[in-house]
Amino acid sequence: MILAARSICLAVVLIGAQPAIASDNPSWLNKQMTFKQARRAILRAGWQPIRSDDRDHDYGVVSALHHKGVKEITQCSEGESFCNFYYRKQNECLRLITIGEQLPALKVYDWTSECPDE
Known about the structure:
Keywords: Signal. The protein has 118 residues and is α+β, with helices and mostly antiparallel strands. 29% of the residues lie in helices and 24% in strands.
């Protein structure tokens, strides 16, 4: 009985330590936005960019955006160029996914509550 109670307490502590997730449907974010509009809205809502590793930004869209000060970009696919950007607000994470190959043309494709691999 005591062992079971300790296991439950440990589970509660571990669950409490996990980051919470962002709202899956924030009213201030939509798929019609450009990346610049979405980024502005995300920052106004109190989210902070999660800075990615500078060593991973030596090519294409990722490099161009990183050099323009968009430090939260983590990767872009080749071809249609889906890009990932990560933000944090307290213990919540927000992953913004865009589509496009150049900054003015980047559009919001989707978003999730995923945290980057750390």
